[in-house]
Amino acid sequence: MLELLSGFINNTGFFLADYRNYLMIAVGILFVWLAVAKKYEPLLLVPIGFGIVVGNIPFFKGFGLGIYEQGSVFNYLYFGVTTGLYPSIIFMGLGAMTDFSALLARPKLMLLGAAAQMGVFFTLIGALALGFFPKEAASIAIIGGADGPTSIFLTAKLAPHLIGPIAIAAYSYMALIPVIQPPIMRLLTTKKERMIRMDEMRDVSKKELLIFPIAGTILCCMIAPTALPLLGMLFLGNFMKECGVVERLAQTARTAIVDTATIILGFTVGMSTQADVFLNAKSLGIFFLGSIAFSLATASGLIFAKIMNLFSKNKINPLIGAAGVSAVPGSAREVHLMGLHEDPQNFLLPYAMACNSSGVIGSAIAAGVLWSFMMI
Amino acid sequence: MYGLSAIGAANGWSMAILGISIVFAGLITLSILISQLHKVLDFWENWEWINGKSDRNTDRNTPGTAAENSDVQLCSHPYFCPTEIDELTAVWEPLVNRLDTPFYLADLYELARKHNFPHPHLSINRLRSANILVPIGDRLFEWNTEANEEE
């Protein structure tokens, strides 16, 4: 009996845990607290935070419990992450939610979405300089796109062993947009620039909205075919939304399907941060480079908007450039709030959303381009 | 390997320059395409020889159609923006009545855009200047019908 009791105790989490497990459980609880108390991206941080807590309960290896153990329930759920399945599904839902009319009305704003991707490629250089292998550097760099699903997708293809830290870094910085972006916006713009009012948008016809996803798919995927799983699904979702004849499918894509994928993706990514594989110097380097990537992407968008103003008759509010990262809709909301703070009559939200949606397309192309480079 | 030698060995500079160029090229091409799209559509719909229509204005999918077919006829013409404040008030009042009081300007703006109201930004600004849209704090506004009657 004593032997049985001793064996049971030896298998409990309390016996197997070391300080790293407790540290990661504390991180998970911090994520959940940020989501619940501070309302920082709760849809993402609740499943991720809870996943971190669950993933760091230690267990006896060989029971088929862990996310990295073949045949375990969590390993099956994690399959959608490692194959890039969930990011594609989320992109379809995102497409079914996105209204591209603001972007179609002001196509010039698409350049700001492209400019923000410069942060990705600057970070690629930084990561290489710090000694990361090219495939790891590319996966870290895409954090600058501020798009969780894209980061996970590319990392799954290039450096699957880094999915945990990269996904956590990407989603953490997305959640911390209200903390990270406003100081950069204030630093790089003057009060006068922040008060610039944008020209009114022209109205966009239904036919334009219908043609855009088809034209976008053909053009973007011809340029970077490796972006097909993301952009193909994004534009499929958007076409379902705009065509008006499959409203039931579009509704399901933007609600039940995207929510299911988000829950499982967030939870399994959180679980993948098991202390023994997560807590190392590489993860710290990824977090450091991720913050640099995100800040550079924000700054690139802002600076490019200012450069455009030098050559343009119709001035652009440079704050909108900060929404060129594809953190939808967090960064657009931050831009709008800062615009309102300076001038309560200045509604920047539609313009910022246009940049945001071009950022989604831009980051998917950037991911496709990086993947192509690594295959050559 | 670290530093510049690591960047050089992995073709880092070339990848960065080429990567930025490809992303820009892709999005610039897409933006040019969509900036011309409405012109191409307009040209197509107005080309009688192709679509064989005698009446250019029938069955056009112009932005005005949405407003004209909407459940309420809020504006006589989508591109018509009243110059007189009384007229502007009369056009906007039915829209405001659809919102709860007090309301956020952002909601009014969204509703105006949904119904293809012309120049919503400008119109809201004029209504504010005329003290018809009155701020009551916390970014909430009220429709001041008395100001309208006084005028």
SSE arrangement:
The complex is a heterodimer of chains A (376) and B (151).
Chain A: H1 2-10, H2 13-16, H3 19-37, H4 42-55, H5 73-82, H6 85-97, H7 101-105, H8 110-116, H9 118-129, H10 134-141, H11 148-158, H12 163-175, H13 177-188, H14 191-194, H15 206-223, H16 228-243, H17 247-271, H18 275-278, H19 281-311, H20 330-342, H21 349-375
Chain B: H1 3-9, H2 12-46, H3 48-51, H4 63-69, H5 85-97, E1 103-104, H6 105-114, H7 120-129, E2 133-137, E3 140-143, H8 145-150
Antiparallel strand pairs in B: 1-3, 2-3
Q: How would you summarize what this structure contains?
A:
Chain A is mostly helical and 376 residues long.
**What is the number of independent domains of chain A?**
1
> What is the CATH architecture assignment of the largest domain in chain B?
Orthogonal Bundle
CATH fold type of the largest domain in chain B = Arc Repressor Mutant, subunit A
Spatial separation of the terminal alpha carbons of chain A: 62 Å
**Which two chains touch over the largest interface?**
A-B, 52 and 51 residues
Oligomeric status? heterodimer
What features would you highlight for this structure?
heterodimer, A: 376 residues, mainly alpha, 21 helices, 0% strand, B: 151 residues, Arc Repressor Mutant, subunit A, 3-stranded antiparallel sheet, 8 helices, 61% helix, flat
